[in-house]
Amino acid sequence: MALIVQKYGGSSVADATSIKRVAKRVAEAKRAGHDVVVVVSAMGDTTDELIDLAQQVTPLPPQREMDILLTAGERISMSLLAMAIHNLGVEAKSFTGQQAGVITDEAYGKARIIDVTPSRIRQTLAQGSVAIVAGFQGVNPTTNDVTTLGRGGSDTTAVALAASLMADVCEIYTDVDGVFTADPRIVPNARKLDRVSYDEMLELAASGAKVLVLRCVEYARRYGVPIHVRSSFTTHTGTLVTDQPAAEGEIVEQPIIAGVAHDRSEAKITVVGVPDVPGKAARIFQVVAGAGVNIDMIVQNVSVAATGLTDISFTLPATDGAAGTAALTEHQPDIGFASLQYDDTIGKLSLIGAGMKSHPGVSAKLFAALADAGINIEMISTSEIRISVVTRADSLDEAVRAVHTAFELDSTEDEAVVYGGTGR
């Protein structure tokens, strides 16, 4: 008997038929003798539709009211799933994030979990019922206002509950069979990984892999919560995200490469003609940070001796492009740069693998594969287990496939299947 936390995404509960399928899976786990806590996202594209509706009412809706609006999506899912489970003869109770004890700060729209006090969840489990929790939401204890955790917040809710309840595993159900060596939508012959480390999953998530959000992996690593990524549309074994030692008989040799991730959500700003003197780069990034913008990759060109000027390029989320350029333009006189160039037609490819620490030649093979495909590299960034490059957005898919093949990650078995989801 185990305590299992299951999380189902929007595509898994997109309609009544899907909800009944999830209810059957939950009931089977309960009848097998397990204690089960379920975290659900809003049905299908409900969150996007609510956002669209709010913007039809006003172009600038108050964020507090947006949080109240958006939490309605998960409330619908949790109550419908509880009804479906009841219909199968299994007791189930649904709870909002507030009722489940998910305590957050007061940053509307992007709140962070500061504590989880799941006394009502424990009580429900002790009574032999399934507890169903609305993901993506919590409550601020100072204001007593409802908050939302941002995109992917249901994953974080599930892992946080699993950590607080000391669950045996947190199962994240999605529309693919696990974590693949590349996005199956771009590389149909991507291979499913049986096991991946927290560090590798963190790099994959940070580099654009959307199967798990970065915050939930960080939470899982901090509290040692094993995550099992599975499809809600099949009974296949998925991918285990953990640093726990492999069981006896499992292959323990660390593969060189875990996967190839890509990201189209970034843009590039080039600050042209920066005086090459101490303190100017620091001032640029102080201004950008002051605008609330996170920076990813940075490249500074060699100074031109005759002019004493250099160019500094950096990438940032495209959604923050306007804020970044506006802040720099405002401070142009005191920084003293000549001009700004903004480019939102870039793509980032990242090669990730803990094994590359002890295997020389990974960089050479990566750059050779891109060169053979005729793909130009604009920026390069590395960590101990990751190499990232920036290319043109329209060549990103080709780059991913070329690198995936070059590192012999292509599967010789059946093509990967994406079972649901609209991609919104």
Characterize the structure shown:
With 424 residues, the protein is an alpha/beta fold. The chain has a domain at 3-244: Acetylglutamate kinase-like (Carbamate kinase, 3-Layer(aba) Sandwich). It is built from twelve helices and 20 strands. The strands form five sheets. Strands 3-6-2-1-9-11-12-10 form an eight-stranded mixed sheet, sandwiched between helices. A four-stranded antiparallel sheet has the order 13-18-20-19, with helices on both faces. The protein has a four-stranded antiparallel sheet with strand order 15-16-14-17, with helices on one face. Helix 6 runs antiparallel to helix 7. The radius of gyration is 23 Å and the shape is globular.
Which features does this protein show?
12 helices; 424 residues; 8-stranded mixed β-sheet; alpha/beta; Carbamate kinase
Structure described in brief:
The protein is built from twelve helices and 20 strands.
Q: Using only CA atoms, what is the Rg?
A: 23 Å
**pLDDT below 50 for ≥5 consecutive residues: which ranges?**
none
CATH topology-level fold name of the domain at 3-244: Carbamate kinase
How would a textbook summarize the main sheet?
A: 8 strands, mixed
Proper CATH architecture of the domain at 3-244: 3-Layer(aba) Sandwich
Main-sheet strand order equals 3-6-2-1-9-11-12-10
Class by alpha and beta content: alpha/beta
- Number of contiguous helices: 12
Draw up the topology in text:
Layout: E1 3-8, H1 16-31, E2 35-40, H2 46-57, H3 63-87, E3 92-95, E4 102-104, E5 113-116, H4 119-126, E6 130-134, E7 137-139, E8 146-148, H5 153-165, E9 169-174, E10 195-196, H6 198-206, H7 214-223, E11 227-231, E12 239-241, E13 259-263, E14 266-275, H8 280-290, E15 298-300, E16 309-317, H9 321-330, H10 332-335, E17 339-343, E18 346-352, H11 362-372, E19 379-383, E20 386-392, H12 396-406
Parallel strand pairs: 1-2, 1-9, 2-6, 3-6, 9-11, 10-12
Antiparallel strand pairs: 4-5, 7-8, 11-12, 13-18, 14-16, 14-17, 15-16, 18-20, 19-20
